[in-house]
């Protein structure tokens, strides 16, 4: 499994947690930062998926 896939998932989860904490506490900056990190993690995870597929020859 490509490293970007695992790192992307980690960022996606961390971002989701930050987003929820920001919502609960009313901290809009933390909520926004969480959304950004979560979306960046999704992109990184997709890059890893593509790399895995390329290695498989698909």
Automatic annotation (TrEMBL):
CsbD-like domain ranges (all copies): 4-56
InterPro entries: CsbD (IPR008462), YjbJ_sf (IPR036629)
Entry-linked SUPFAM superfamilies: Hypothetical protein YjbJ
Gene3D superfamilies reported in the protein's UniProt record: YjbJ (1.10.1470.10)
Start and end residues of each stretch annotated as Disordered: 35-58
Pfam families: CsbD
Family note: Belongs to the UPF0337 (CsbD) family.
Protein name: CsbD family protein
